[in-house]
Write a structure and sequence with these properties.
By secondary structure, the chain is mostly helical. Helix content is 53%, strand content 2%. A hairpin with a 7-residue loop joins strand 1 and strand 2 (251-252).
Length: 264
């Protein structure tokens, strides 16, 4: 066993334990950064310096994108069994992965890479199954992808430059996807992805087709024949005005026409 690879594998597993168990967002991001930086280095022989620099830049950029979506005083659910239990489960899975190196066939990579992959799979199971917020579920999915890459590194030779470039692009894309998911969850009211109270706890929206109960209903008009009340009719234009007399009915009288006055 290469002591340097074993030390890098131990640090990577410790970062994964921190990422899945911490309630503080900053600690979770630190654990993810350790995992993304350490997992590509668990290889024998090591990748070339250019590939290492590309993977480091991709890991830092991915973590930065996730941090952009998590600005503010936020907290995650953390683990329910505590970090010591998570560490013991990861250690047991690492021993199983180291003992089953090659999975029944000849292996071309280091055994510690497969051990790291097994440990990350066990650590990713709890956030994926029991996670209640978008960040924890995203962390579980990211750890699962890194675990698959680590197991591949334990079974096959060290990836070439093209494969390292593809892995770097995927790392950045996953970081951006997690940032978008967390931003959408915060816009909806928080990081919670699953409501603890169930569907009945959600406020029900009144259908648009029905009138709200607090709005008074309009009275229904009768559908019978239309009835009109007789009222005073307006006289047409130019008609003589009616003059009321004594208590009798009003009669229309014409005004007498005065003769023109003679100026003589």
């Amino acid at each position: 066993m290469n002591p340097a690879l074993a030390a890098i594998a131990a640090v990577t597993i410790a970062g994964a334990v921190l990422a899945v168990s911490a309630r503080d967002v900053q600690a979770t991001l630190l654990g993810l950064m350790v995992v993304l930086l350490g997992a590509p280095l668990i290889a024998d022989p090591w990748p070339d310096p250019l590939s290492i620099l590309v993977r480091i830049a991709a890991a830092l950029l991915a973590v930065r994108l996730i941090a952009i979506g998590l600005r503010g005083g936020l907290a995650t659910g953390g683990t329910r069994i505590g970090w010591p239990a998570e560490a013991l489960l990861a250690g047991a899975a690492a021993v199983i992965g180291y003992g089953s190196h090659g999975l029944g066939a000849a292996a071309f990579g280091p055994a510690v890479a497969q051990a790291t992959g097994f440990a990350l799979i066990v650590l990713a199971a709890a956030p994926l199954v029991a996670g209640r917020d978008a960040l924890r579920i995203s962390v579980g999915a990211l750890l699962l992808l890194v675990a698959a890459s680590s197991i591949r590194g334990g079974l096959d030779p060290t990836p070439g430059q093209a494969e390292q470039l593809v892995g770097s692009i995927l790392t950045i894309a996953i970081g951006g996807a997690i940032a978008v998911i967390t931003l959408a969850a915060r816009a909806a009211g928080g990081l919670d992805a699953i409501d603890e109270g169930g569907r009945d706890a959600l406020p029900r929206r009144v259908p648009d087709a029905h009138r709200p109960p607090d709005r008074p209903e309009r009275p229904v008009r009768p559908t019978g024949p239309r009835q009109t009340q007789a009222g005073p009719k307006c006289a047409p234009a130019g008609a003589p005005r009616a003059v009321e007399s004594g208590g009798g009915p009003s009669r229309a009288k014409r005004r007498p026409v005065r003769p023109p006055e003679d100026g003589s």
